[in-house]
Amino acid sequence: MLNLHRLTVKVAILLLSGTVLLSGCKKKEEFNEIYELDAFNALPGSNGKIKVKTDEQWISVLYANLFQRAISTKLLNEMINSIYSVGDKEVAHEKIIAKFMVTPGLKIPSNAEMRQDIDGFLNDTYKRFFVRNISAAEKAWFKDYIEKTPEVTVEFIFTAFALSNEYQFY
After folding, report:
1. Which residues contact 154 (CB under 8 A, 6 or more apart)?
2. Distance from C-alpha of 111 to C-alpha of 104, rounded to nearest angstrom
3. Burial bucket for residue 158 (CB in 10 Å: 0-12, 13-18, 19+)
4. What is the pLDDT of residue 38?
5. Any idea what DSSP says for residue 168?
6. Residue 169: beta bridge partners?
7. How far apart are CA 104 and CA 155, in angstroms?
């Protein structure tokens, strides 16, 4: 009698499982709803620039951005050797920028000029470093940052641009 009861329970569980499985295998209804979304282009962090600058290119372009003239071959070789001697490329880049920021002949706006015309400064900086126009979101963020952070300097902003991911590409 006990075996018959167990058999009945097993059959009931098997039938219930089969019913659940079969009832769950119904064809889904087709939905033909269309969602109209506005298309937009999302750009990668390098803003569409896909080729990484060589060390020579990075130094040459940086020097031209900061001094508004071409770098000498001698100085370029010294900077390349400094990158190879340090080992850590990011640290070497920081050291090169720091050296350039205290080198005579640096042609960058003063902090007063930056604060007098923040919009103009940002437009010029984006064109100078990224060779493109600044977006509305970038301008809003940077303008707010400069206005609310009195200790930020042109040197600080130029250093940030030179070390940015986008500046590493062309």
Report:
1. 108, 109, 110, 111, 114, 121
2. 17
3. buried
4. 67
5. G
6. 52
7. 14
Q: Could you tell me the two tokens for 35?
A: 């969602």
Q: Which two tokens stand for residue 169?
A: 């590409």
Burial class (CB in 10 A: 0-12, 13-18, 19+), 80: middle
Instruction: Give the CA count within 13 Å in the CB-facing half-sphere of 71.
Output: 21
Measured CA to CA in angstroms, residue 159 lies from 1, 41, 101, 155 at distances of: 87, 28, 9, 6
Strand partners for 52:
169
pTM of the model: 0.70
For residue 69, count other CB atoms closer than 10 A to its CB. 10
Tell me the pLDDT of the chain (170 aa) as tens digits: 555 556 666 766 766 666 665 666 556 666 667 666 666 555 554 456 788 999 999 999 999 999 999 999 999 999 999 999 988 999 999 999 999 999 999 999 999 999 999 999 999 999 999 999 999 999 999 999 999 999 999 999 999 999 999 999 98
